[in-house]
Amino acid sequence: MLFSILLITAFVLFRISAPTTHEEPGAWLSASANTLSLALNLVPFAGIAFLWFIGVIRDRLGDLEDRFFATVFLGSSILFLGMLFSWAAVIGAMLMAFGRDGAGQPASSAAFAVAFAYSIVNVYMVKMAGVFMISTSTVAVYTRFAPRWLAIAGYVLSLILLLGSYYLSWCFVVFPIWVFLISLFILMENMSGPSEAPISRE
Question: What is the DSSP letter of 201?
Fold first, then answer.
């Protein structure tokens, strides 16, 4: 849940700060430096919270964890985190290179940095998020560690991420929202007392 809140906040702060056009860097960097810095400072904590979420899922599965889906699950989550941190590194490097006034740097350099950051998010990171949702939803269907409707929602939303990221620039937020719903379900189930263990795939 903390991951979802932090990542959505960081993503929204970035989207409202960085222009999508080739705007003169000095104008928007000087006005948005503090906002972008806040977004970047939230990313590491979002990454830590996501690792915690992965640990909770694996602990919940226990011996029922399938090797094939565990490989896809862990691989996609690690790649997702790597690209999340790469995105933050690109934005941080841009802030350091241009300074708070953006003086002395060509607008094309800022445009390249913004385009690169958007490419990481909308092309690569969302694809890994979609793969993560598919693998997690499949495990949820077989083991019932989460409700079936959440698994079906994961399949549908993953298709939006895999196919619609080129056309829907805000579609990435469906991933942290879906993670939030799964986390909320696990939290409520844990608070309600001992629950029925996930069933075997056999």
Answer: -
Phi-psi region of 198 (alpha: psi -120 to 50; beta: other; left: phi over 0): beta
DSSP state of 164: H
Residue 48's Cβ-side half-sphere holds a number of Cα atoms within 13 Å equal to 5
Domain borders along the chain are 2-191
pLDDT digits (tens, 9 = 90+) for 159-170: 888 887 666 667
Alpha-carbon dihedral 97, 99, 102, 104, rounded to 10 degrees: -60
Extract the tokens encoding 127: 């694809």
Element (H, E) at 75: helix 67-98
The region, left, alpha or beta by phi > 0 then psi within -120 to 50, assigned to residue 99 is left
Residue 201's CB: how many other CB atoms inside 10 A?
A: 12
Low-confidence ranges of the chain (pLDDT < 50): 22, 100-101, 195, 197, 200-202
| CA gap 178, 158 in Å, rounded | 10
Q: Residue 202: its pLDDT value, please?
A: 47
